[in-house]
Amino acid sequence: MAKIGIYGSSFDPITNVHLWTASTVAHRCKLDKVILLPCSSKRKDKRLKTEDEHRWNMLQLAIEDDSRFVADDHEMKQDAWNIYTYDTMVHFKKKYPIDEVYFIMGADLLVDIAKGEWAKGRELVSENKFIVMAREGVDMLSTISRSAILRNNDDGSTFHLVDKGLAMEISSTYIREEFAVGGEPKYLLPTSCYDYIKKHGLYS
User: Fold this and answer.
1) What are the residue boundaries of the Cytidyltransferase-like domain, all occurrences included (predicted)?
2) Which of 29, 109, 175, 201 has the most neighbouring CB atoms within 10 Å?
3) Does residue 128 lie within any of the structural domains?
């Protein structure tokens, strides 16, 4: 039985922090595989700057040398944004029926679930396991204990709390902004992705 983490983001573009986070989680939580899951471009809560083709190509370039990482376009290819994280986890648990599947998220999203801001949040928490990455200003244990949804579905193994030990919050937004004004974010993302962005004139 393998241990698999599902790591979703817009990856617009993928950054070295995305990769460092995935690597840290894989190492600390003894994951056999991390599935990087680019979100649908049809999400109402995100305004993506890049065509799906480019996001997908950069993701493939970024992970080609690490056998632990796998890209999956399950959410990207949805016809409309009518799928929730709960449904995504149902999909992957069916795809990997004999494995342990974890949803990887930041502590800020844990707060949102606690506030009831996620569709099917109660079902999501009651039926899945999570790897939660620390975020500055968020007390993960306190967040769980203050939320009836979270604390009543925590059997001691529901939430694996991880502090990376180093605050690196370089965002895709920052990188896009740097490219847009002629900045130099070269060492904030994989060299192959930097070269791809330059070649295709993305974010300018």
Assistant:
1) 6-177
2) 175
3) yes
Query: How many folded domains does the chain comprise?
Result: 1
Phi, psi of 34, rounded to the nearest 5 degrees: -120, 120
Could you list the residue range(s) of the whole structural domain that residue 133 is in? 3-168
Q: What gap in Å lies between CA 148 and CA 62, rounded to an integer?
A: 39
**Any domain includes 196:** no
Q: Output the domain CATH number for residue 73.
A: 3.40.50.620
Q: 85-113 pLDDT, tens per residue?
A: 999 999 999 999 999 999 999 999 999 99
Q: The sheet that has 69-71: what strands, in order across it?
A: 69-71, 33-38, 3-9, 100-106, 129-133, 159-162
Distances (CA, A) of 193 to 2, 38, 56, 118: 30, 15, 11, 32
pLDDT digits (tens, 9 = 90+) for 31-66: 999 999 999 887 666 677 799 999 999 999 999 999
